[in-house]
Amino acid sequence: PNVDFYSGLIYQAMGFPLEMFPVLFAIPRTAGWLAHWQELLDQDTKIVRPRQLYVGNEPRHYVPISQR
Which residue range is the domain that position 10 belongs to? Predict the structure, then answer.
């Protein structure tokens, strides 16, 4: 189990309604999400991987089973 499992047990013991659990799990992560977003906006930072280009086979058209 991850940390949300144990956090959920504590939230339940504290009397929070189950409907509030997703919000309570998301609030602490917001700082990390915003920091990651800010890094993505910085043009000088090369943290993000370069764009991947597909180099495999060309697209093939689907042939229905009845026509095979």
Answer: 1-42
